[in-house]
């Protein structure tokens, strides 16, 4: 389930020598722990492994999907959290 949505935010991780910190990541939709669907402005190799477990989307696709899924972002807010099990269902294959 989509459990939280943020219009933008900082995503970071410290995985040994492979640490990263990305600011202003757009259209973040968390679905499990720190894993999310989100827009990726730093590459254009969609469909090829290029992340630390998140699902990177083109900016256009990330914006469309963000508007399509639940929970719906209230007007004037930049984030929303869904009660358990009430966000859109996400099936990853």
Strand order within the widest beta sheet:
4-3-2-1-5
Beta-strand percent range: 35-45%
The residue fraction in helices comes out at 10-25%
Shape: globular
Number of strands: 5
Number of helices, counting only DSSP H or I runs of 4 residues or more:
1
Helix-strand makeup class: mainly beta
Using the CA coordinates, give the radius of gyration: 13 Å
Please mark out the parts with pLDDT under 50 across 5 or more consecutive residues, or reply none: none
The mean pLDDT is 91
Largest sheet: 5 strands, mixed
Distance between the termini: 14 Å
The topology string of helices and strands comes to EEEEHE
In short:
The protein has 93 residues and is mainly beta. 11% of the residues lie in helices and 37% in strands.
Please tell me about this protein's structure.
By secondary structure, this protein is mainly beta. The chain has one helix at residues 59-68, and strands at residues 4-13, 20-32, 35-39, 55-57, 79-81. A five-stranded mixed beta sheet has the order 4-3-2-1-5, covered by helices on one side. The longest helix is centred in the C-terminal third of the chain and has 10 residues, at 59-68. The radius of gyration is 13 Å and the shape is globular. The two termini are 14 Å apart.
């Amino acid at each position: 389930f989509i459990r939280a949505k943020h219009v933008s935010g900082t995503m970071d991780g410290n995985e040994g020598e492979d640490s990263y910190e990305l600011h202003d990541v757009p259209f973040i939709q968390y679905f499990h722990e720190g894993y999310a669907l989100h827009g990726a402005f730093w590459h254009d190799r969609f469909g090829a492994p290029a992340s630390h477990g998140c699902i990177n989307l083109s900016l256009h696709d990330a914006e469309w999907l963000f508007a399509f899924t639940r929970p719906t972002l209230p007007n004037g807010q930049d984030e929303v959290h869904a009660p358990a099990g009430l966000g859109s269902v996400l099936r990853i294959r």
